[in-house]
Please model this.
Amino acid sequence: MSPQPASALRPRTLLPGDGKSIARLMRKITPLDDKLDRNLAKVLDDLLEEERLIGGLIEDYDAAGARTVVAATLSAFVPPEFREAYLDRPWPCLTNWLLLRCLKGDSGLFLDRAEQAQGNLASGLDLVMLDYIQTPMDFTSPEGRRIMTVFFPFFLSIHRGYNLNSMIVEAGAIYEQMALSAGFRLYKPLDLDTDPPAEPVPTGASTKRAVYFFQRDMIADTPPSTPVSAVFTYLPPRFRFTAGEQRTLLRAIDGLTDEEIAGTLDVSRDAVKQTWRSIYDHVIQVMPDLVDRGQMVSGEGSRGQEKRRRIVAYVRDNAQELRPHYLRRG
Model:
């Protein structure tokens, strides 16, 4: 009997409609308010639809092609005034608190696409890592290590390309070693037993927690090999693709076909093809050497696939081209 092929882990960026999968994982690990727990999938999908969350899923495909979501990460950008208020007096279970506020109608705590563009162009963006969950959460187990091997480069691909000013993580103290290894600094321990919080915390929340922090001026004292250092490396975009072009390129990086891209963006396949033509035309104007002029002809087939491959490879390595910024068009 021939051996069964091993399962394959495949990461992809979050899409509207992923709220249910993320919520299923979060309920296993993350302490949540009861009302938030019941409405979590909708809250997440609303935020994804408004492009107020960034993140991704890792799916495990078995030999038959069936897939199971085994990990998810999500983050959001917050206004500078929130960052200052939180760091002045941190409180526990920040993810639960923020998402509960969104459930109550205050989604403006997370910046939308236009506000992210303003931050990229100005003094920078302040990011809160809301959650990372995987099954199993035992990072030392064989399966845990297998997932983490995929997660770390995926984390970089999701968070790179933004003009970051700071990053905040609040979590149980058991994750301290993971946070420090990534390059974060311990900002403040939170002991709920000795210093009870002003607001109730979800049932099951660990009482020993901590806030971890990193900001741009810490790069000089941080090993360049850490994930945080890589995330804080920023270059302005050269192409300034439109928002629609960026969405198409993001799906292409995930390996989607044109038909699949059309489905996730709720547009026709012809619209996707038109977007590719717009991308090709703009690339040859801005960076002729990226794709040989002889290849820049209309139509698909081998030539079309080659120019697409080159462009997708470039933006995969230059994530700033896919982030909110002043764009050529809307």
The longest strand covers residues 67-78. Residues 1-5 have pLDDT under 50 and may be disordered. The first helix runs from residue 19 to 29.
